[in-house]
Fold this protein.
Amino acid sequence: MIEIEDENQNKKEFFKALVLKKLGEEIDDLIEDNVIILARVSGYEVIYFFYDNKKKIVILDQLNYDLNTAIDTTNIEKIAKAITVKIGIEKEELEDYKFIFFKEKKPVIHTFSIVSNQFNDLSLGLVLNP
């Protein structure tokens, strides 16, 4: 687990600066939230994230919280689906959102296409874009 260098630094400000530095995107207003997903191996897991609906960005906080869930294609889709439902992203807007996973301060950006309007545990309705 990587800690924020300055303990007094606000996590929101840290992620704003990191996104600006790594991606060149300025974020105005990050909101912190969490969602619970069902992971195959580890049972339930709480996923901590930040989001900005104006910029259509979701940042998963892997720097301050270790995930037990493997970040594979299926789990990335489960996380995106759970966050989409939690923060009320409309299906029509989902393809415009960037889901940013920071692994050791290196951003990995995932976007999704909707392949089905049916969301359930077996058919997530999402597919990762290449």
